[in-house]
Amino acid sequence: MDMHRILVTVADCGAKPTPALAKAVALARRTGATITLFHSLYSPEIAGESLFSPEALPRDIETAVRARKQLLEGLARPLRADGLQVRIRVRWDYPVYESIVREALREKSDLVVAESHRHTRLARVVLSNTDWQLIRLCPAPVLFVKTARPYERARVLAAVDPLHAHAKPAALDADILAAAHQLAGAFSGMLHAIHVYQLATPFTAGVLMEPVPLPVDVTSRQLERIKREYDALVDRYELPPRRRHLRAGAAAEEITAVAERITAGIVVMGAVSRSGLKRLFIGNTAERLIDRLNCDVLVLKPAGFRSPVPRRGSYHPMVLPPF
């Protein structure tokens, strides 16, 4: 992750600085990156003027955009005074997730930092539909900030899959480890790596569905291969045994358990956007994992991923004026 441009999504321009902004600022200080504060604006009430007062529509859009920019300036001003390079952007665009992806493409962002979403004061942070669309569609890495805990001396957990059980591109694991190592180094933290596997059962289905026994040592041979591939992947980072986590079971449960046991500050994982049942299966696993984690999550895409989001917004719903 060559971090030169950080895009921070701002849902409420008039709110106090969020943990997401604080984390982006901490990253910018250590990397020298430029921060862009981005707000996506769309109002059905204003858009409805296209039916009954089209001549007023451009003026009212400009007024709404200018008001949000003034609020964002209130967030940017103290950061600039502290020596950071901060820009503001407000776009009249819809839907929000496509607007964020388009801005990331315009800015050539190296990282998108998304605000957390909390439904009530006591409810834990959960990802919204916009967040899940960003996981699917954003070509830049996306950092979902779920806590206010600072990253200083944080434990960073890299979730890898060296056997590519989900047909994940091989290079993505190397990118996950490199990004996790970079984050741990930037904040004097500690890198951990985890792989969750499932061993073959000692029986398989025969021609007429009767169980056929597999070789007695098939499980031990599979485990040896898993350990060999995992060690080959993480050896370059010279991790001691206590920071190498090989767990059997369901990925969501085991990664969550390890993240809680080591008090991880960030979990770094990969995402592959797919269609059909494969995408749904992998997406369900990711959903269970990310919503369970009580720490921040950095999601990476494979190199060469191209977002299907069009560079220009095309959705402009017609809204009838109120009676």
Keywords for this structure?
2 domains, Rossmann fold, 12 strands, alpha/beta, 10-stranded mixed sheet, 323 residues
In short:
By secondary structure, the chain is of the alpha/beta class. The protein contains 10 helices and 12 strands.
The assigned CATH architecture of the largest domain is 3-Layer(aba) Sandwich
Structural class: alpha/beta
Order of helices and strands: EHEHHHEHEHEEHEEEHEHEHE
- The third-level CATH topology of the largest domain is Rossmann fold
Strand content: 15-25%
Q: Quick one: CATH class of the largest domain?
A: Alpha Beta
Q: Tell me the span between the first and last alpha carbons.
A: 53 Å
CA-based shape = elongated
The main pleated sheet reads as: 10 strands, mixed
Oligomer state of the chains in this structure: single chain
Number of strands: 12
* Structural domains: how many: 2
* Helix share, percent: 25-40%
The largest beta-sheet arranges its strands as: 3-2-1-4-5-12-11-6-7-10
